[in-house]
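During the second half of the funding period, the structural biology subgroup turned its attention to how the target accommodates small molecules. The most pressing case was tryptophan, which had performed well in the primary screen but for which no bound structure existed. We therefore specified the complex as follows and requested a full 3D prediction, including the ligand pose.
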Amino acid sequence: MSDSVSPLNDPSASGKPSPNREQWSSRLVFVLAATGSAVGLGNIWKFPYITGEFGGGAFVLIYLICIASIGIPIMMAEIMLGRRGRHDPVTTMKKLAKESGHSRSWGLLGWMGVISGFLILSYYSVIAGWAMAYVPRMAAGTFVGLDAQAVNSVFSNLVSNPETLIAWHTLFLFMTMVVVAKGVRGGLEKAVTYLMPMLFLLLVILIFYAMGTGHFSEGLSYLFNPDFSKITTEGVLSAMGHAFFTLSLGMGAIMVYGSYLPAHTSIAKASILVAVMDTLVALLAGMIIFPIVFANALEPGAGPGLIFKTLPLAFGQMDYGTLFGTLFFILLVFAAWTSSISLIEPAITWGMKTFQISRIKTSVISGILVWFMGLFTVFSFNLASDVTISSVISTQYGEFVILKDATAFDFLDYLTSNIMLPLGGLMIAIYAGWLMKQEYSREELSVGSFWFPIWSILVRYVAPIMVIIVFLNAMGVVAFVRSIMGV
Ligand code: TRP
């Protein structure tokens, strides 16, 4: 990407198609940007805690299968649609549908993406605020020598205080919206070039710490020894939902990034690279956190606070822990920052075009909306922590837990990760696999005569069928049919 104009702030991005539309300068830059979007709180905060909630190995295995068989093919499809449409997701889908003679209602897919991004950012920003709140605490040496219980109470004190959470949420969201509004993205992208490898390096340092806890192999076997008796239908749905979440799929973010991709770059190679790096970061995070959990007799299913209860404990005990810990949370905030930008970018490009207002105005309005939405998440951890909903369907074929004592935050997370993203991904797969003319997809992907049919099978059959089965399973339909047929 050039220094002066960044593609994501190109005014033509939401206007008429421009022959000179800005493009990434190379595949490497695209891969960096997409990795910046993919690697975030999902990998370091969410993956470990949901793995802990759903019992470890079996969940991880299902998640990995979903990355390979659903995530990568759908990522290719989403980038491909973006590059062919070269617009915001709504316009792209309308334009492509028209090109292939299908209904313009495909624009709804883009529209659902815009809403998903909004909803996700509203809680993402609050959690990123937690990570920010840990920077000064780390730097001040708050955790030095603390035991597990004391580290726990630092976390509980933080989340029980709505004013503090709102303050950090406001700061993080402000940082995000400034980048989105002003177009210093070029600068941020450059920062990512250095910061991402640093984050990776720190994770490697932490792995050595985890090895020294004496519980490393216990952690590894928790992560990689599948115990299928622990997995529930809800766990399967969450593993699939997380595959979408962690790769930033199903809502048009990667589609927007793809819209700036030069015509000749290989979509397949880029997708695989991004997915591999993303998965590596998540697995590293898991391999660090679970040994610490077991070494300190903590609860793997501690929920959203898991990394905030484990990592500070490690930093508090290790040499140079104050330095590494401070650096770690700073880098985590950066990782969250590059992700949050991609969450709101589809909404911004769409809003500018639809309401014909400037990027700055669109950013201010979106920022205010997301800020208010974020309050639901803030209060989920304190004032309104007992305002919950449950939705359990019990039938003679079993009990189907859709939501159990879900706070507003749990509900938002469930709705977006487990329903909206897979649904968006399903529609992307159906469009790219079945409705787009094969000559177009063949031309865009240009992966050769061996790989194209494989992609085609994955995106036409495997991915959609898997998504549908997981959905039906979660709703109890599969159990119902099996019992009728006696199998
Ligand atoms: N993938 C990011 C993470 O793991 C979050 C994210 C960024 C995202 N953009 C997205 C999730 C688009 C879903 C859709 O933290």
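Two results from this model are relevant to the next phase. Strands lie at 389-395, 398-406. Residues 1-6, 9-19 have pLDDT under 50 and may be disordered.
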